[in-house]
Amino acid sequence: MFKALVLKKQDDADASVSVDDLNISDLPEGDVLVKVSFSTINYKDALAITSSSPIIKNYPMVPGIDFAGVVEESNNDSFKTGDKVILNGFGVGEKYWGGLAQKARVKGEWLVKLPEKLTEKQAMAIGTAGYTAMLCVLALEKQGVTPDKGEILVTGASGGVGSVAISLLSKLGYEVCASSGREEFKDYINSLGAKKIINRSELSEKSRPLGKEIWAGAIDSVGSHTLANICASTKYGGVVAACGLAQGFDFPSTVMPFILRAVSLLGVDSVYHSIEGRKEAWMRLEKDLNLEHLTKMTQVISLDDVDQVAKNMLENKTFGRIVVDVNL
Predict the structure, then answer these.
(1) Which pLDDT tens digit goes with each residue over 166-216?
(2) Which domains occur in the chain, in start order?
(3) Is 324 in contact with 316 (CB distance < 8 Å)?
């Protein structure tokens, strides 16, 4: 028997949330069985757990798009018993049972081995949010955005993606401008390495086709008018990495920044990113992330706390990264 957070749904009602005792035989098919040590709550998890968006494709569902743990059984040649592994995305916690449980059975092709210098807890403090932030940083680098090119904007600065992005960029030598609507976290955001903070209201209203050229690059987890304003204010040849839609999934912009300033808008997806790309991102996270910053941005909760914390996240009452110790 093991414990798991289970979402159940009847008809058109919102899904119920409970921590249940399950049997190994209840787990779906897969060639690797993992004893989960830690999971986490991302924005997508919060949407799923609170029935705020149709994230879940079938019920009952164990949510949680991330987990880190130890292989207990394997029929996959790439993994053996005792290997420490990470999973991010691939539809886990949406289509397939996820990481908010003490056991998970998944396809080995979805797993990445835990970097040697990271613990399972640190890996989930990073989680999909931090892994996505690293993918965004890599996207900027591969398009030639170097620290000497100018200031980099990071939106959603107190959230998971934003917090990790600021820490990574500052350690790599970039000058970071952070956008946030949460005055109470000003000191926290500065402590991660942001040189300047602007209020998110400066970016959240209707955009002009072109604005003053300010940023050499940007990492945006907000979307909608915010993303449009960012593109309109990015320098000639600058690069914007878009990875979220906290404000909305619309994009009320024009082609002006792209054809008059040669701005590049790059979509960053973490769910189905290639295994080789994942390995590169985790290798860079192991090397480039300030682990003192990671500790500062991390809170640990139990499975019993998940339902309420998910609600708090959507009400903008959390910050940084939320790690779930599934064995508390």
Answers:
(1) 999 999 999 999 999 999 999 999 999 999 999 999 999 998 999 999 999
(2) 2-114+297-325 (3.90.180.10), 128-267 (3.40.50.720)
(3) no
